[in-house]
Known about the structure:
By secondary structure, the chain is mainly α. The protein has helices spanning 13-34, 40-50, 53-73, 81-103, 112-132, 145-177. It contains six helices and no strands. It is globular and about 50 Å long.
Amino acid sequence: MKTTNVDRPGTNPMARAIWIALIVTSGVGLSTFFACATPFAALATVAALKLGRRDMVCVVGLVWLANQAIGYGILGYPWTWDSAAWGLAIGLSSAAAIVAAWSLSTVRPAPLAVTLPFVAALAAFEFGLYLAGFVLPGSDGAFTAAIIGHVFLINAVSLCGLMAAYQLAMLVGYLAGQQTDAVDGAPVR
């Protein structure tokens, strides 16, 4: 199954704008709800699949900045060097997730078109945090099978939710575009 021009990065400005809005809004909302378990792998996957290189990096970077601002400004993260270092590790791991997802985001038949980039993004993100745990304090017990499974579930559900929200937004946009003008019967755009 090939993607259409509407799905390719940079070919449909409305689709691009919807993806950017969905990713950033979801990232901000999920940061408030999940704090340190924000689904950066899911967000990086969607960004890599649906946006151009510059946009995907900017969008995930904005989500990371929002995540840190929410953490320190609203959720009360401690203002310590190790907390800031973990924030940086999350940012670098998110960058690794983008690279991993983007490297596997070529056109493939479904479900591999989403599955392979997602698995790569999640593995890269978690591996980055795992490596940071060797130098930063506070990672004791953070990489148990139960916790990794929980992080996977949060990311998988978030990825499915983002994909469904996009489809709904496109459907609403399509239906709104099908309305006709009462005066001449032409489609309203």
